[in-house]
Amino acid sequence: MTEKWGWTLKDIIVTCVLAVAFGALYMGWVSVWALANGVFGPIGLDMVYGVWFMASITAAYIIRKPGIAFGAEMLAALAEVLLGTPAGVSVFLGAGIQGIGCELIFAATRWKNYSTPVLMLAGMGASVTSFIYNLVMFGYTKFPLSMLLLMLAIRLISGAVFAGLCGKLIGDGLAATGALASFPLGRERAEKKVEV
Amino acid sequence: MIKLNRFNPTAKLIANVIILITCVVIFDHKTMLALLCASILFGLTTNSFTKKNLKALIPFLLFALAMLWMNALWARVENAQVIGSLGPLEFTDKGLIVGLSLCFRVLTIGITSTIFTTNTDPTELMLSLIKQCRLNPGIAYGILTAFRFLPTMETDLATIKGAHRVRNVKKHKWYMEKGRWYKYAIPLLATNIRKAERVALAMEARGFENNQKRTYYKTVYWKKRDTIFVLCTLVMVSLVVSFSAYKGWLVGFKRWQGF
């Protein structure tokens, strides 16, 4: 599996560290969700949902190899289970579905293009797949259509802004520190500087 | 008292998956309530409810309750009767039933998962995933290594805060500050990525490779009692489901009139 996609041990360890950091963030974010939920009901979930795709997008933006977006999300889910999330096994299912949503967008560009619009699209891809999952899992199908469309629209925005833009922001911030010198993102940054 | 931590983590994972799938294909509140009661009873007999666990379940409880009232208000059901109203909002009986079954579903998943996570040792889970689920050892050890970083991340955060104070980083009111989280997140992640690179180099230097065949100091085996555990879960779940089918409560995929 790792040979086929060209993951090196360094890629794996860095993805794992990112996944554990984001896994801890994801666990904490549950309380933000609870707050949003108390105020807005299930629509609150859609508002904050984008944060749960950040691991995929940040890791894919930095490492730029096939399968990283999916892998990072699954590893973040594994970290959550190890930390003891009450969502348990269903976290794997949800993370897998979100990861596939991101990965599909990156796959459509053949893992070559990591510009801002693509990253935002990847966040939106995860929004769509996760929405379908919630539709079945939490029985959203009983809600009226207009409300479902509103929920989907809010989730798309949340995915694009929280996951896409914030993921890129974190990646760029890390590249500026020089910590990513041996990764594609850091190299791209260095090449640009030489040109200027 | 059953000691759950003696079972294979993969067996517990499979048991959880069985319950998860059952929850997703059942659409009536009585069967779901029976499953919820069964899982609470199981949790009590294995002594897995601590204060910390119950606190972690609070967001789930809130979400379950929100699902309940949202469905009672807006669910699309036929021939529904209004059973109560609050100002312009009207609650329907059938919507309430849909809400109840979803509320019980969320709670059942939350409680069974809590039982799983409190009774499973992280290292054993990873070893079992390598052995029984064929997870790549590189990834498994990577996660275990990264997991060791968590406590040092806290010290790192304290260091970063100290450094900000030494350099007199100005504190603004929260609405003036563009990215307080950003100022902490970037140095924190940068140090940890640097550390991860060093760890990867060290692992390679000691001959750790991704795909090698390797032996283990400690191996988690699949024993007879793990098979029995999975079978017991299956029997329990099917008992609950067939009892409600016998009583005529069960609403499965076929009789469900959604969409």
Structure, explained:
- The complex is a heterodimer of chains A (196) and B (259).
- By secondary structure, chain A is an all-alpha fold.
- Chain A has one domain (2-195): Arp2/3 complex 21 kDa subunit ARPC3.
- Chain A contains nine helices and no strands.
- Chain A has helices at residues 2-5, 9-40, 42-48, 54-63, 68-83, 90-108, 116-137, 145-177, 184-195.
- The model of chain A has no long low-confidence stretch (mean pLDDT 87).
- Chain B has two domains: 4-124 and 221-247, no CATH class; 137-205, no CATH class.
- Chain B is 68% helix and 3% strand.
- Chain B contains nine helices and two strands, in the order ααααββααααα.
- Chain B is mostly helical and 259 residues long.
- In chain B, strands 1-2 form a two-stranded antiparallel ribbon.
- Chains A and B meet through helix 2, helix 3, helix 5 and helix 8 of A and helix 1, helix 4, helix 5, helix 6 and helix 7 of B.
Count of individual domains of chain A: 1
Determine the structural class of chain B based on helices, strands and strand pairing: mainly alpha
Question: How many strands, what sense, and barrel or not for the largest sheet of chain A?
Answer: none
Helix content of chain B: 55-70%
Task: Bin the strand percentage of chain A.
Answer: under 5%
Using the 3D structure, state the CATH architecture of chain A: Orthogonal Bundle
CATH class (first level) name of chain A? Mainly Alpha
Short summary:
By secondary structure, chain A is mainly α. Chain A has helices spanning 2-5, 9-40, 42-48, 54-63, 68-83, 90-108, 116-137, 145-177, 184-195. Helices cover 79% and strands 0% of the residues of chain A.
Offer a few descriptive terms.
heterodimer; A: 196 residues; mainly alpha; Arp2/3 complex 21 kDa subunit ARPC3; B: 259 residues; 2 domains; two-stranded antiparallel sheet; 2 strands; 68% helix
